[in-house]
Structure formats: structure tokens, C-alpha cells
């Protein structure tokens, strides 16, 4: 069975959902089992958090600077500006993720509407 085995519209969504769940859930359970035995301030756990944060930052930077699909049609200054302002609002709002994310989304949509006329 492969990606093109079924013609149903829902097949890619099911495939991605199951594959994504299997790929990530295994590591979550392993983290729970191993993490219970570690202190929060242990050097290993600090290193793991640092690597995880760096990976997320790298993925976000890649999506902003080298986007795929429709986002590639947005100007670079708009993508970077929305992310920077969204991050600033996140910090000002007491580190509430949804406030910063919502601000960045609203800014990029409004900016796109204004730049396309």
C-alpha cells in the first residue's frame, strides 16, 4: 500500500494523521518513562530542552524565509515583520502563545490584502 493506493479524498488526511501520530507518540511515551527519573534542573534535560527549542526556531525560520505554496507569494518583509511583531505581542501579553500567534496571523492577512490591492 502506498500514497496513491486509494482514490478517496480523505485518504491523505488519514495517512498523515496515523503516520504523524505513530512517529510522535512513541517519543512522547519514551519521554514520559525516562523523564520521570530525571530532575528538572539536570544537565541532560536542559540540553534536551535547548535542542528542542533550537529545532523549533529553525523550522519557523525556514518557513518564514523559504516558504512553500501560497506563503511564498507574500513579501519577505511582511513575513518577517508579522513574526517579529507577533513575538513582541507574545512577550507583552505575558507569554500567551495564542495572543502572539493570532496577532501574527492577523498582520500577515491584513498586510497581504493591502499589498495586493
Automatic annotation (TrEMBL):
Whether Transmembrane counts among this entry's keywords is yes
Point out the coiled-coil segments of this chain. none
What Pfam families does this protein map onto?
A: AzlD (PF05437)
What residue ranges are annotated as transmembrane?
A: 12-30, 42-64, 76-93, 98-115
Q: Which UniProt keywords apply?
A: Membrane, Transmembrane, Transmembrane helix
User: Could you tell me what this protein is called?
Assistant: AzlD domain-containing protein
Q: Which organism is it from?
A: Pseudohoeflea suaedae
User: What's the source species' lineage?
Assistant: Bacteria, Pseudomonadati, Pseudomonadota, Alphaproteobacteria, Hyphomicrobiales
